[in-house]
Amino acid sequence: MITDLAAAAPSCTTGTWSQKWNCGWNQPVPAGVKVAGYNFGHNLLVPLLIIGLIFLVARSVRRRRKSGRTATSGAGR
Hints:
Layout: H1 17-25, H2 31-75
């Protein structure tokens, strides 16, 4: 696989678009971006787990009700 299509430009404002891309891509991430990404991911994790748990409980309740209805409706015939 080719990982480096163009060498980094001597200045990030000159060169082809791929050289500018490589120059920006290789820059370190600012600390504020790291903190924001960490906080977003960890603050989003708990609500996603809760929504997933609610989904699983609702699905199991729905399946129990369906199986309960078919068993009782067939018994009265």
